[in-house]
Design a protein that fits this description.
Two copies of one chain form a homodimer. Chain A is an alpha+beta fold and 110 residues long. Chain A has a single domain, classed as Alpha-Beta Plaits (2-Layer Sandwich). The first copy, chain A, is 33% helix and 40% strand. In chain A, strands 2-3-1-4 form a four-stranded antiparallel sheet.
Chain lengths: 110, 110
């Protein structure tokens, strides 16, 4: 999954969420899918990308137009419930870093 | 793999490298290990974390004390050779984003 490419050149904010999954999976996939769908409807959402290895460690980076958009997403009621569930059931360890993207470049093959 | 935890509270810079691996693996593991070892010796290196899923999409985030430290790492001769090899052989698609971390928080269980 890759972030929306049209946003490459625009200054934006990134939320880097790294986490270690526990073996408890009940409800995780449904909630993750629901949060992805919900995030897309939030003002200022620009895209996201995610990877998780077989060791359970994963990184999700979401991109936003502003820090206000990030704060607004963080406090959405459904998202708050998902965060609480994540802390309780799904993650043994996580870290959130908010960062302002200052430049970006890359390569995409035809 | 998680970034060095003692750096959580310090403002720092992140390099978000997202990539899609091709099926060509020759030399990749050796070079990735060598680059990780080399990065640890670079001035201003704070830590890194990486995840790659079975679909070949991966995210590596490295953390640095300054943008100068990032520029210095980017132009290291061995790293330049690895970057060239990556573009030619290992990645079908990649994106680099440089970002200034403005805040971080998380949870680590005992």
């Amino acid at each position: 999954m890759t972030a929306d490419r049209q946003n490459e050149k625009r200054a934006c904010y990134a939320v880097i969420f790294s986490s270690v999954r526990k073996n408890e999976h009940h409800g995780y996939d449904e909630t993750a899918a629901a949060m992805e769908t919900l995030a897309r409807t939030m003002p200022g959402y620009l895209g996201h990308e995610a990877a998780r290895g077989s060791d359970g460690f994963g990184i999700t980076v979401s991109y936003w137009e502003s820090e206000d958009a990030i704060a607004n997403w963080k406090r959405h009621a459904d998202h708050l419930a998902a965060q609480q569930r994540g802390r309780k059931d799904w993650y043994s360890d996580y870290m959130v870093r908010v960062a302002r993207v200052t430049r970006s470049y890359g390569m995409k093959r035809a």
